[in-house]
Write a structure and sequence with these properties.
mainly beta, seven-stranded mixed beta sheet, 112 residues, four-stranded antiparallel beta sheet
Length: 112
């Protein structure tokens, strides 16, 4: 059973930064793609960023230039560096592997 555990969420002021982590129970190279999604209250879950086993990345237009997805040297952890945060980034952020496995989510709140 694959387990994904997110951490790093919290409350931050607009313009601030956070780094989310997703620790996988097996190497992230076991998955053809890993990614971060988010769901704001009353909205559908949406893709934020993805990272393929080949090393390519993809970002939602709303976060391009502000967020960066990366993988640890040990390959079991995927990160989401979030800079220049905006109130509209407030959501529960979920880690996903292979489009099938989900973590429990971590809350990110951007507010002054």
């Amino acid at each position: 059973q694959v387990q994904l555990v997110e951490s790093g969420g919290g409350l931050v002021q607009p313009g601030g930064s956070l780094r989310l982590s997703c620790a996988a129970s097996i190497s992230s190279f076991s998955f053809n793609v890993m990614g971060w999604y988010r769901q704001a209250p009353g909205k559908e879950r949406e893709l934020v960023a993805t990272f393929t086993s080949g090393g390519s990345t993809n970002y939602a237009d709303s976060v391009k230039g502000r967020f960066t997805i990366s993988r640890s040297g040990g390959k079991n952890t995927v990160y989401l560096q979030m800079n220049s945060l905006k109130p509209e980034d407030t959501a529960v952020y979920y880690c996903n592997a292979a489009g099938h496995f989900w973590g429990q989510g971590t809350q990110v709140t951007v507010s002054s």
